[in-house]
Hints:
Elements: E1 2-7, H1 11-23, E2 29-32, E3 53-54, H2 56-64, E4 81-86, E5 91-96, E6 100-101, H3 104-113, E7 120-122, E8 126-132, E9 137-143, E10 146-157, H4 164-169, E11 178-186, E12 194-198, E13 207-212, E14 215-223, H5 229-244, E15 254-259, E16 271-272, E17 275-277, H6 293-307, H7 312-322, H8 324-335, H9 337-341, H10 343-352, H11 367-372
Parallel strand pairs: 1-2, 1-10, 2-7, 4-12, 10-17
Antiparallel strand pairs: 3-6, 4-5, 8-9, 9-10, 11-14, 11-15, 12-13, 13-14, 16-17
Bound molecules: flavin-adenine dinucleotide.
Amino acid sequence: MFDILIIGAGPAGSNLARLLSKQNNKMKIGIIDKRSLLQSTETTNRTKACGGLISEDAQVELAIQGLTLPTSLYVTPQFFKVHIIDFDNQLEGDYPRHYLNIDRSAFDRYLFKLIPETVVKFEASLVTEVKRLEKGYRVQVVTSNGIKIFETKSLIAADGANSFTRRQLIKTYSGADYFSIQAIYESDQHFSHYLGMFDQSVTDYYGWAIQKDHTLQIGCAFPKSEKHAHLKFQLLVNKVAAYEGINTKPLAFTEGANIERFNRTEFAPFSLKDFYLVGEAAGAISPSSAEGISFALKTSRLLAEAFFLEDCVNTRRRYLRAVMPIKFKLLLKRIKLPAMFHPYIRRIIIKSRITAIPPYTTSHRTKKQTKSV
Ligand SMILES: Cc1cc2nc3c(=O)[nH]c(=O)nc-3n(C[C@H](O)[C@H](O)[C@H](O)COP(=O)(O)OP(=O)(O)OC[C@H]3O[C@@H](n4cnc5c(N)ncnc54)[C@H](O)[C@@H]3O)c2cc1C
């Protein structure tokens, strides 16, 4: 029997476990993940498909929480701009970005290691059923030692996009609307930017290419209804290869992941009775850039602060109040979506050069070259 059981040990879940146990060591807290986060071997180390860019908002959240990142998490290069290619309008632009380029898998393991010993950790354990009881919740978990059943007073969904826990407890939730494909190519070029690409013939979302040490990570997100995602992804890869002049040697591996992108008007509830949602399970991710680590760190901090009151009714009320600015921010981002994703409006914005940095002539191709790609 737990006081608090967290499902999912991504940035949201691990951070929450760390903060809760710091505040209150009398509560019995557990965290469950289907991945193995302490030992990392080929077979046990499932990697979350992610660009691994720590945004400025995420850096602010790390600062608030007094967290530092060891340089061992960094990958090369660290860049200071995003280079946008708008294939729809044959336009390009550079925009300043102060992201940290990190190894996402190492980041998750780092956060997991920061969870104190007082928290009971279950790795390589898949949650297969969640039920609401009269008081609390019952969680069924499949582990290498068989099936285990836990009960908990409060339950936290930190299991990311397409949250299984959320689908079990909130029947109206139909799952994530988008999914991503990401592939790793050999590349020794150290670009001074990462690429963001818009191309309606590929997707109504966007694609990216990020140098990570000796590889180039190319990714793209598609609506779930897209039937030819792999073909379209290959089309994008070919365009990147032609544009960046990389030699797409055989694929190292391909990853996939769901992405929450709320085009719909409803918000995730964040909390129902003594059930709480944090990070992407709560739909807290930018619908425009898919930046979600800052939201994962922030929602987990806000929930940990709300739990500090140690009274379930107040915890819920306090958390719901605390996440109001996040809901507002997500709403604003949703309103701004057409500026980025409607080709005509995007054309005006890129041409206006608002917030763009001046081009450095030798690093840029001409409009004609972009068109030929
Ligand atoms: C392709 C892609 C690129 C992205 N790039 C960036 C980026 O560059 N920067 C950025 O800030 N954000 C990025 N994001 C978003 C970011 O990855 C997520 O928003 C962030 O990881 C959310 O953290 P989380 O802890 O809520 O969920 P997750 O990181 O998804 O963690 C959920 C955890 O729950 C576990 N889990 C799930 N189901 C179960 C189950 N049934 N039983 C047990 N465990 C379970 C999973 O193993 C996982 O460890 C990207 C997303 C995608 C898909």
